[in-house]
Amino acid sequence: MGLAALPQGQPMHATAIIAAGGRGRRLGAAVPKQLLDLGGRPMLQWSVDAFLACERIGDVIVVGPPEWVDAPPPFLRRPGIRLVAGGDRRQDSVANGFDAVSGTSDIVLVHDAARPFVDADTIERAIVAAAESGAAVVAVQARDTVKWSPADGSVGEVGADAGAPRVVERTMPRESVFLAQTPQAFRRAVLAEAVALGRAGGEGTDEAALAEQAGHRVRIVPGSARNMKVTTAEDLAMAEALVHGIDRRPVGDRGPHTIRVGSGYDLHRLVDGRPLILGGVTIPFERGLAGHSDADALCHAVTDAVLGAASQGDIGQHFPDSDERWRGASSIDLLRRAAAIVAALGYRVANVDATIIAERPTLGPFRAAMASGLAAALGLAPSAVSVKAKTNEGVDAAGRGEAIAVHAVALLEQPSAGLGPRAADPQKT
Q1: Is 255 helix (H, G, I), strand (E, B) or coil?
Q2: pLDDT digits (tens, 9 = 90+) for 376-406
Q3: In this structure, are residues 373 and 380 in contact, taking their beta carbons and an 8 Å threshold?
Q4: What is the pTM of this model?
Q5: Helix, strand, coil distribution of the chain in percent, nearest 5
Q6: Contact 187, 136 (CB under 8 A)
Q7: What's 309's DSSP letter?
Q8: CA 390 to CA 203: how far, in whole Å?
Q9: Are 21 and 66 in contact (CB under 8 A)?
Q10: In the beta sheet, which residues pair with residue 388?
Q11: Cis peptide before 183, with omega less than 30 degrees from 0?
């Protein structure tokens, strides 16, 4: 089946659908498994943070229980995340999520919330493979010898009795067997056909199977054993062990509970013809800040503080002004991406303190709104964000009213990982 080429010279817009509507009854927990605590974060948040940290991902659609749409867990109340109610089956939930995908999306990825350890490289490779081939599935080659035994128990002398012992009909060449994982990535039109087939009565254990039934060839992207699916209590214990392993990665000197502090500074000139935006809030004033993005100096300083605390460089490294993708970009969105980058390393932002230096305009009436904007981008309560405004008493460019400067400090923490299935406290996430 032929595929039209994607536009050349234009950035691909990718959307991630995370299927999170299951109840996880096999784990025996009192809450859905996607909300179980894993290293100090709900399991679902690991996947959400991984996709938000990927620069090619424009937005994330979480398909969850219907009650989440009106009352989402706090960690899902962030820019770039949309919530959709799930359906009776997984493929119904994904179809609901696909209905919410923007018409500007070139690539759509589908991921299981129960696979918390997906990484940025895997996501990137899946996107590229789908752009080139139309459909791609992350998978690992079977390592063990594979035996085939039909589920109906009708092989050889074994009858249809469900309690009869299973026997091997044949041994399959393991080099030809791959175990599918997620994400699975598709050109938008390919997934549209797969979803339509499912709604017309087709059934598949995943979207790649429906795409195959619709006549599309699905490319294999090498996966990782670490990209495990948490289904049973044993799986959860293994996931907890992996979290301990992630905690020991050499990003600074990590103990069982690590605290790191970062500082940020930014200054932009005031110019005519630009809106004045600070903390995502448009402030009435005759001039605005010059810059490649929306020039939100408050967000830029906080972004540098967050990235610096995790030794992840600065805003210019991740979102350079030489890249047209970030021209006019919302700096609140850039801050949200920075928070996702450090979250993917096992950190979460604990609190932020920022000081704006400006002679004019008077910023006091806008402090609460600015703090709320920063808090939403970072997944924090507004009380965890402080925004202060000072003048510079006529000294230097800021004091002469030629520029606005911002100093910021961010505290990151990496909580210790406990063992056993328990619910994360969503009010602390």
Answers
A1: coil
A2: 888 888 889 999 999 988 889 888 999 999 9
A3: no
A4: 0.63
A5: 35, 25, 40
A6: no
A7: H
A8: 62
A9: no
A10: 355
A11: yes
